[in-house]
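Lay summary. Proteins are chains of building blocks that fold into shapes, and those shapes determine what they do. In this project we predict the shape from the chain. Here is one chain we studied, written as its sequence of building blocks.
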Amino acid sequence: MDYVEKRRRKNMPLFYDPSRSRGGKPGNPQFKKVAERIAEWIHSLGIQGVQPNHGWRHRFKSIARHVKMDREVEGFITGHRPKGGASPDYGDRWVATMADEIEKYPRYKIAALSQPQRPHKRVRRTREQIATDDSPRQSRRTRRVAAWAVNP
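And here is the predicted shape, written in a compact code that computers can read:
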């Protein structure tokens, strides 16, 4: 919970660091890549029956209703805005309050979590590797532009 509170104070996302962005395209933002990697991880654990990651939100909301979690807190956690004008926006959303409500939630028992961690599949490329991989693409682009300039 300390980590969550630190991220909240800095107004930063929980699951990724925006400073590590490599400046991708607007159509493929950093948070989508993080979501893809979380989905890969979930599938690698053998969890079936939900379509990560949006399916988790539906599941969370269903179980939250079942355990009678406070609707306002459930909305804070899922990122849904409560109905009712501006008044729901008044006041702070305390991490401690959310922690009390999340304690109502049943725990998942996932066998894969008790097994030793496997090494990550993804390896970050160095700037030199990226430049090497991009050079054939750049030369093709240069030839295409040159050909177009000659034969518009």
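What the prediction tells us: The chain is about 50% helix and 0% strand.
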